[in-house]
Amino acid sequence: FCQPGGWQLSKERKQPTFFVVVLTDIDSERHYCSCLTFYEAEINLQFSVFKGTKEIEGEEESGLIPPAEVFAPKSLVLVSRLDYPEIFRACLGLIYTVYVDSLNVSLETLIANLCSCLVPASGGSQ
């Protein structure tokens, strides 16, 4: 559900997208799944070409295509029984920013701090 368009590599970095999916369990309880999908560079991919090695001006060609930069989708997902899409978007955006900018903050500590926040009652202030 976090990548409804399918998982596929891209030749260019796409902008992050945010959406909410509502899942209903067997007891008819709703679970709000906030998804932030972004694309991250994967530069260590090498594709093997099945051709014989050949000699080029005294150098042997290995038959490998040099690594190409492609972007793979990754998703951050927050699942809750509460319907606070803007708060969850801000939380996922914070985690994304810390991850992408390689800030000097432990992701585990950040997520633990976010999980320990008190959520306001419905209709109350944020």
TrEMBL record:
Keywords in alphabetical order: Guanine-nucleotide releasing factor
Segments forming domain UDENN: 1-126
Transmembrane segments: none
GO CC terms: cytoplasmic vesicle
GO molecular function: guanyl-nucleotide exchange factor activity
GO terms of biological process kind: regulation of Rab protein signal transduction
Listed name of the protein: MTMRD protein
Gene it is expressed from: Sbf2_2
